[in-house]
Amino acid sequence: MKEEIKLSLNEKTILEVFMKETDTWGEVCLNVKNLLNNTQLEEKEIRECCRKLTQLKLIEYMRGLMDDDGKVAGAGYCITRDGKKYIFPCQKCGEEAHYSWHENKKGEWVSGVFPEEIDKYFQLCEEHYQENKNK
Ligand SMILES: [Zn+2]
Questions:
Q1: DSSP label at residue 116
Q2: Is the pLDDT assigned to residue 24 strictly greater than 90?
Q3: Separation of 63 CA from ligand 1 center, angstroms?
Q4: Distance from the CA of 129 to the center of ligand 1, in angstroms?
Q5: Strand 99-104 to strand 118-124: parallel, antiparallel, or no bridges (unpaired)?
Q6: What percent of the chain stands above pLDDT 70?
Q7: How far is the CA of 94 from the centre of ligand 1 (A)?
Q8: Which of 5, 9, 106, 129 has its CA 20 to 30 A from that of 43?
Q9: What is the C-alpha separation between 121 and 110, in angstroms, rounded?
Q10: pLDDT in tens, 70-122
Q11: Cα–Cα distance measured from residue 122 to residue 14, given in angstroms and rounded to the nearest whole number
């Protein structure tokens, strides 16, 4: 049994920002300034969170990042595979999930516009998504 990582609310908030940004833009690195713009936290708190999350290997610090033109764009933190697994795990195996959706009682996908219709929530990795689809 893997030891469970306990994060503070601030640390979780930061990790969620990484996940959201990565979802939107693909693999992204964020620096402290980016995180300041994306949270209500103080710079000092952000630095402490980043240090802790780096120690836990949920994010990693990258130097000499290149932009699309091949110019050095600076340094920042990126979410790791473990970080993604922590925030968005597959319900069956705990690996990083790739799909999430809601179903109503008839087993139809619902978009969340009518919350009262929602019966189940799924969050699955590629493998278990395929398995579920072929059932
Ligand atoms: Zn899985």
A1: G
A2: no
A3: 32
A4: 7
A5: antiparallel
A6: 88
A7: 6
A8: 5
A9: 10
A10: 666 678 999 999 999 999 999 999 999 999 998 988 888 887 666 677 889 99
A11: 24
The separation between CA 37 and the C-alpha centre of its own chain, rounded to angstroms, equals 18
Question: What class has domain 9-87?
Answer: mainly alpha
The count of residues in the chain is: 135
Q: Ligand 1 center to residue 133 CA distance, Å?
A: 13
HEC-encoded secondary structure of 12-33: HHHHHHHHHHHHHHCCCEECHH
The segment(s) of the chain belonging to CATH 1.10.10.10 are 9-87
pTM beyond cutoff 0.90: no
Give the count of alpha carbons within 13 A of 117, CB side only.
Answer: 13
CA distance 71 to 85: 31
- Tell me: pLDDT of 22 over 60: yes
Q: Where are the alpha helices (DSSP H) in 1-135?
A: 9-25, 32-38, 43-55, 81-87, 126-133
Name the pLDDT band for 1 (thresholds 50, 70, 90). Answer: very low
